[in-house]
Design goal:
heterodimer, A: alpha/beta, Rossmann fold, six-stranded mixed β-sheet, four-stranded antiparallel β-sheet, B: mainly alpha, Methane Monooxygenase Hydroxylase, Chain G, domain 1, 7 helices, binds adenosine-5'-diphosphate, binds magnesium ion
């Protein structure tokens, strides 16, 4: 195929990307494990913030309906790559993304694609729970309302309840839906944010260190929730806790200095990583 | 590998390795001396071997406790995790080796005063020497994290099994030659079986070293040349 396309956005220099690159070999361990069909495919993704390059040619297949963890020292580009998957980087003026990211085989940086609609398909949960200063009900109803996905109040009530149930929060809040979301505990707020993400019916949920502000019990509840959600959603989680990555994910990707160093089945990464840098990092030997 | 950011972790791992080395040394000693006791029918030496066993058991317990504590405290990953899992496995194999050496020593006490020609013991002695060498090599391979050396041990296990089968036939022949040999040869057969099983545990250790060094579990069938379970009297005597 000679269909060269410009896949960068914003006003940065263009990068030409040959479709033939789609057939290039995946990272070292990708062939070693059997995973679900790829939901998200990245090819040679490069990111600059102004003159500073943050990601160097990242290629990865993220299987659907499973949990993929990104680990690596801070500043290695995990959040940057995560934000490429729902085009959150578009909101950072100095950020330039090049390369190709496909969801279900379709290029998400296609100019005709509305990033707002993309973000309904690819939800995001952040490190610090950030409920809107509104009622619990309104926090969850917000997305379906702006996307106009529900016809009646009755239908909206149903979506709110289902989302809160899936987020494991319904029983705790069903009697106080009209109270402010900000009045919940940290762990409950985070589950509220997950309910909010689920409410618009996403296919992929990105989580950037979703437990780092939570205590161990609240963390365990989120991890349990992640496990349940993986039956229906493709989950990508950035975590600085290797134990968490080992507990919740099926695949783990190790980033270092903007490079995807190693990607493989979680059990392989944590018992027998093949790259020395991965080994040094996960065993706590980084100087 | 060493040089963790948390240096106390290095100390934990070093302690575990040191304890395995101590267990290995003790198991080796029990093995050599039980064979020497058998060859020389030295009851005193055999009793000393039997008396060493509780120490080996205690060491195994200590290693297990230390390993569990280290896992809980350091949450080891990758090669560190394999290191600790290997220590637990090897300690358990060494403990079994000690038990088997002790069994040989008990036979020495049991056969004291029995009539028998010296030539009968030679085969068991020879087999013991071979297993002894295997044990020494595999412990060296563990200390040096040397996969090639561990694999050499693993590949040689077949020789020991073959030797056991040959010995089994030989002992059957002696029993048929002279019924007065029967009691003694039966004890020797058990002793030989114990030695052969020490060989199996040595092979287990070789597999563990392979896992420790490479991160991969050996999937190939072990080399097996023990056909004694199919040996009939006719075959044994060439009748
Ligand atoms: N908005 C931004 N503007 C400029 N540089 C950024 C921005 N966000 C991230 N970076 C830089 O990009 C690199 C990767 O950062 P990030 O993706 O946040 O790493 P991680 O999530 O792995 O800690 C870092 O060097 C960081 O300083
Ligand atoms: Mg980050």
């Amino acid at each position: 195929m000679t269909d060269d396309r410009e896949t960068s956005h914003n006003q940065g220099p263009t990068t030409v990307n040959r479709m033939a690159d789609l057939n290039m070999p995946l990272t070292s361990a990708a062939g070693l494990f059997t995973a679900n069909a790829p939901k998200v495919t990245a090819r040679d993704v490069t990111v600059h913030y102004g003159d500073k390059q943050a990601l160097f040619g990242v290629s990865i297949d993220i299987p659907e309906k499973s949990v993929t963890a990104f680990i690596g020292p801070s500043g290695c580009g995990k959040s940057t790559f995560l934000r490429c998957i729902n085009r959150m980087n578009d909101t950072i003026p100095i950020c330039r993304v090049a390369g190709e990211i496909l969801i279900d085989g379709a290029d998400i940086y296609d100019r005709r694609l509305d990033p707002v609609l993309l973000r309904a398909r690819v939800g995001m949960v952040f490190q610090k729970p950030n409920p809107f200063p509104k009622t619990i009900y309104e926090n969850v109803a917000y997305g379906p309302r702006i996307h106009g996905t529900t016809a009646s109040r009755q239908e909206l009530d149903g979506v709110v309840e289902t989302s809160l149930r899936k987020a494991g929060l319904w029983d705790e809040v069903k009697d106080r839906l009209d109270q402010p979301g900000t009045g919940l505990s940290g762990g409950q707020q985070q589950r509220l944010c997950i309910a909010r993400a689920i409410a618009v019916g996403p296919e992929v949920i990105l989580m950037d260190e979703p437990c780092s502000a939570l205590d161990p019990i609240a963390t365990a509840r989120i991890e349990e929730l992640i496990f349940e959600l993986a039956a229906n959603f493709t989950i990508v989680i950035v975590t600085h806790s290797m134990q968490q990555a080992a507990r919740v994910s099926q695949q783990t990707a190790f980033f270092h200095l903007g490079h995807l160093v190693e990607y493989g089945a979680t059990e392989q990464i944590f018992t027998a990583p093949s790259d020395k840098r991965t080994q040094d990092y996960i065993t706590g030997r980084f100087g | 590998m060493s040089d963790h950011i948390v240096r106390a972790f290095d100390a934990d791992l070093r302690t575990l390795r040191g304890m395995i080395a101590e267990m290995g040394g003790l198991a080796e000693k029990m093995m050599t001396e039980s064979t020497r006791a058998l060859a020389a029918r030295d009851i005193e030496l055999a009793r000393r071997v039997i008396a060493m066993d509780p120490k080996l058991d205690a060491l195994q317990h200590e290693i297990e406790e230390k390993a569990v504590l280290t896992i809980a405290r350091r949450q080891p990953m990758a090669v560190d995790l394999r290191d600790i899992v290997s220590a637990i496995r090897i300690a358990s194999d060494l403990e079994r080796i000690g038990d088997l050496a002790k069994n040989v020593a008990k036979r020495v006490v049991a056969i004291a005063g029995q009539f028998h020609p010296q030539k009968i013991v030679t085969g068991v002695e020879h087999m013991s020497d071979l297993v002894m060498g295997q044990l020494r090599d595999v412990l060296d391979a563990y200390a040096a994290r040397d996969d090639d050396r561990a694999m050499d041990v693993w590949n040689r296990d077949g020789q020991i099994d073959a030797l056991y089968t040959a010995l089994f036939r030989e002992l059957l022949t002696y029993m048929m030659e002279d019924p007065r040999n029967i009691t003694f040869c039966t004890h020797l057969l058990f002793a030989a079986k114990n030695v052969e099983r020490i060989g199996d545990h040595t092979t287990n250790i070789a597999e563990t070293v392979h896992y420790l060094v490479t991160g991969h579990t050996l999937t190939a069938e072990r080399p097996k040349n023990d056909t004694s379970s199919f040996t009939t009297l006719d075959e044994a005597t060439g009748a």
